[in-house]
Amino acid sequence: MMTKLGIIVGSLRESSFSQQWADNLADMFPGDWDKSFLEIGDLPLYNEDFDAEGANPPSEYNRFRKEMSEVDAVLFVTPEYNRSMPATIKNALDVGSRPYGDSVWDGKPALVASHSISGISGFGANHSIRQSLVFLNMPVLQQPEVYLANSQDLLEDGKINNEGTQDFLQSVVDTYVDFAKKFL
C-alpha cells in the first residue's frame, strides 16, 4: 500500500535551506511513500468570514484543504522566525483546521524538522509547531528530534555534505516511518 506524505516547507525564499533540507529528507523515504510538496505560500491569511455559511472560500483554501485531505502523513520542515514558526505554517495550520469540525489534520502522524543558520537550530519553531499539532490531534514523532544547527555548513550544492548528519536523518526517517505505520 502506498503511503502519501505531504511535505510542508516553512520558508518561501527561492533556494531556501528549508527547501534543501526537505528535498534531502524526501529522498530518504522508502519507495512505497508517495511524496508531494504542498504549496502554502499562496494561502490568503485565514479569515473566519470565508467559512461562514453561504460564503465562498478562496480557491487556494479549497485546493489546500483537498490536497491535505488526500495525504496520510505530514513532514514539516521549517526555519525559525523570532523564536517561533513562520507565519506561512501557522496560516496553513489555521486554514486546514477550519471550518470548525472539518480539520484536514486530524489523526495524521507528523514529523517536525527545524533548522537555523545559528546554533539554536530552530528549537522555538519546532516546539511552537508541536504545540499547535497537539490541539489538531496529530501524533508527532517525539524522538529523535530534528534540530539542525548551522545548517548552511551542512549543505553543499543543496546536498548534505556530512556523513554523520546523513546517517542521523536517515535514522529519523526510518523511525518516523515505523511510527507512522501505527496510525495508518
UniProtKB/TrEMBL annotation:
UniProt cross-references to InterPro entries, sorted A to Z: Flavoprotein-like_sf (IPR029039), FMN_Rdtase-like_dom (IPR005025), NAD(P)H-dep_reductase (IPR050712)
Keywords of this entry: Oxidoreductase
A Gene Ontology molecular function term of the record: oxidoreductase activity
Entry keyword annotation includes Oxidoreductase: yes
A UniProt-annotated Pfam family: FMN_red
Class of the enzyme per the UniProt entry, highest EC level: oxidoreductase
Keyword presence, Oxidoreductase: yes
Signal peptide: none
EC number(s) given by UniProt: 1.-.-.-
Record domain NADPH-dependent FMN reductase-like: where: 3-151
GO CC terms in record: cytosol
SUPFAM superfamilies registered for this protein in UniProt: Flavoproteins (SSF52218)
Protein name: NAD(P)H-dependent oxidoreductase
Organism, scientific name: Atopococcus tabaci
